[in-house]
Amino acid sequence: xxxxxxxxxxxxxxxxxxxxxxxxxxxxxxxxxxxxxxxxxxxxxxxxxxxxxxxxxxxxxxxxxxxxxxxxxxxxxxxxxxxxxxxxxxxxxxxxxxxxxxxxxxxxxxxxxxxxxxxxxxxxxxxxxxxxxxxxxxxxxxxxxxxxxxxxxxxxxxxxxxxxxxxxxxxx
Length: 172
Description:
Layout: H1 5-10, E1 23-26, H2 35-44, E2 50-56, H3 58-68, H4 72-89, E3 97-103, H5 107-118, E4 122-127, H6 132-138, H7 141-148, E5 153-157, H8 158-171
Parallel strand pairs: 1-2, 1-4, 2-3, 4-5
């Protein structure tokens, strides 16, 4: 339930919006996950603060560093720039989105820690929908976040994000 009728009329969700707590968008920076910003925009209404978070593992950076020699501060700047690009494509002005990057061996733990630090009203993230052996080997970040969260979590299937992206492009 979204709350009172007034909140439905403005398009925001209880606790989000002007003076409210931020929405945490946890993104893997895939092209499909870009739709998460549009979801957050719709849920938060015109005044909601959105905190975009990408978590990378030390292995991710070391691979890039070995291949390119890129210093870590440039790597982090590139990740933030990609989040900003995705937020711009979703129609979110720069003042509404704060882009954060974290390094961690445990992506779910980093997402949950940041949600707590931010006192987030909601965590929005995508699921890849992996099954079988691939899921057993790679695990599910979304499932771990959902299992341990003390903050409401909205898990959006990649198929829904693709549909949203198609709808947004045709509406533009």
